Amino acid sequence: MDMPISIHDLLATAPITIVTVTALLVLILESVVSKAQALTAWIALSGLVAAMVGAFTLLEETGTAFVGMVTTGGYASFFAIVFCLSGVLSIMLSKMYIRNQGIEQGEYYALVLFAVIGMMLMAAAADLIVFFLGLELMSICFYVLAGFARSRAASNEAALKYFLLGAFATGFLLYGIALVYGSTGTTNIHLIIQDAETAMESTVFLIGLGLLVVGLGFKIAGVPFHMWVPDVYEGSPTTVSGFMSTGGKAAAFSALLLIFAPKMMNTVDALRDVLAAVATLSMIVGNVLAISQNNVKRMLAYSSIAHAGYILVGVVAANEAGANGVLFYLLAYTVMNVGAFGILSVGESREGEYLSFDDYTGLSTRRPLLAGLMALYMFSLAGIPPFAGFFGKYYVFAGAIEAGYTWLAVIGVLMSAVSAYYYLRLVVLMYFKEGVSAMEAPVPALSLVALVISAIGILGFGILPSVVLKLTEQIF
Predict the structure, then answer these.
(1) Which of 246, 303, 428, 450 could make a disulfide contact with 92, Cβ separation 3.0–4.6 Å?
(2) What is the mean pLDDT of the chain?
(3) Quick one: which of 134, 138, 136 has its CA closest to 113?
(4) Cα radius of gyration (the chain)
(5) pLDDT band at 208; cut points 50, 70, 90
(6) How far is Cα of residue 357 from the mean position of the Cα atoms in its chain?
């Protein structure tokens, strides 16, 4: 079949085009210019910012490109902004971090850019084939980034675990796509949803959807597909963990919300029940296990599992309020979790020290700015008003109540109360326990800017949530 690429296709998918050109430029410069890491970092940042601007301009230009395989504007543009924001903040935090850790290599920035391209393809997919290509592009970059600190056994272990389990999950996902295609005769997501009522009479179709749940459940880190998360997040370079937990999670949820759209969820009741069970288990298991952690990175890993459960509540709601809540939550989660991992990256030593709760005892005495920013991120993650995290939970829970899933919202509220223990535990140690934190490394200027941007995002989205909701309401 002849599928010519036109200028219109490239312009309509401008964010993807810009990041792709930037990634290729970074690769070329790294191969021909000696010690080009400083230059490629700024080029990568410029490309992502330009892509964000392009996504903003295309928000209302909804349509398709590449013979209907890719959607443009609206939903795709919103998530392009989220992914580029995650990439920008991660690179800003990484510039000095990877140098201090002795792992400064130019391919780091290329891998981040290619991961962002994969994320954008997942959110823009109008076809399961495009979705799978985006997923694999993102995943392969993450496998490499997880093991980027090659001299550390923990980083190598993280990469190996993530690769092996990720490849296994990909097998489930690909087989699920094959079964869905076999039972519907198409890989077009819109046509699959449209024909779901007829197709659900086929056992093959239902098995295919089940396998898709397994594959996507792994990517969002929902229980019982979560076992890789703590070890991978702990072993990976800290800025990579922050990038995976925000951009990667947002990409997985963007695909989940595309494939399991409200119409699909309302048609296949069994699917809704399964995802409700995954959401419940994720909220309970993630929060309960986070309580016993002494390593802050592992705590944030289990916290990420719990947040996957909260966001799933909005997917299960299968209504406009729930979908809007999911989009708002993912944007808010990006700024607050990148910020939390960013604080860890600033304080972490080359030997991987200063990552435990005890290392933060009395931090407010010596590093009041870092302590204040970390407290802000913890308050938002706990869902304390008026920060962005509170409104993210409010909107997904409101959507669930509107859909008749009040019991799921109640579990979410109860588990949010449990999470306050381990989030506020860190704040108490920083401000109300005697001791002097041993973290003495200076805060790089670029990292500080990223942390402040995250804090402004938390406050801005919390005080004026309607700004984001006006964008999301145009999408659904």
Answers:
(1) 450
(2) 91
(3) 138
(4) 21
(5) very high
(6) 24
Q: What is the DSSP letter of 247?
A: I
Q: Token digits for 456?
A: 């402004």
Residue 127 DSSP code: B
Is residue 35 a part of any domain in this protein? yes
Give the residue numbers spanning the domain of 451. 7-475
Cα–Cα distance between 9 and 11 in angstroms, integer?
Answer: 6
pLDDT tops 60 at residue 1: no
How much of the chain, in percent, has pLDDT values that exceed 90?
A: 70
Q: How far apart are CA 242 and CA 234, in angstroms?
A: 11
Residue 125 DSSP code: B
3-state secondary structure of 245: helix
Examine residue 2 and state whether it is found in any structural domain, yes or no. no
φ/ψ (deg, to 5) at 70: -130, 135
Considering the domain boundaries, does residue 413 fall inside one? yes
Phi, psi of 29 (to 5 degrees): -60, -40
* Closest among 167, 377, 399, 131 to 262, alpha carbons compared: 399
HEC sequence for 135-184: HHHHHHHHHHHHCCCCCCHHHHHHHHHHHHHHHHHHHHHHHHHHHHHHHH
Digit-coded pLDDT (tens) for 236-264: 999 999 999 999 999 999 999 999 988 89
- Mapping DSSP to helix (H, G, I), strand (E, B) and coil, where does residue 74 land? helix
Residue 96 in any domain: the answer is: yes
Q: How far apart are CA 144 and CA 32, in angstroms?
A: 22
Q: How many CB atoms lie within 10 A of CB 67?
A: 15
Query: Is 150 within 8 Å of 173 (Cβ atoms)?
Result: no
| Amino acid 403: pLDDT | 92
Q: Is 67 helix (H, G, I), strand (E, B) or coil?
A: coil
Q: What does each C-alpha distance from 343 to 303, 358, 434 come to in angstroms? A: 16, 15, 21
CA atoms within 13 A on the CB side of 148: 28
Map tokens 């490109």 to a residue.
65
In Å, what is the CA distance from 307 to each residue of 22, 94, 332, 418? 32, 24, 11, 13
Cβ–Cβ under 8 Å, residues 293 and 302: yes
Give the residue carrying structure tokens 């609206």. Answer: 74
Q: How many domains does the chain have?
A: 1
Maximum Cα–Cα distance across the chain: 70
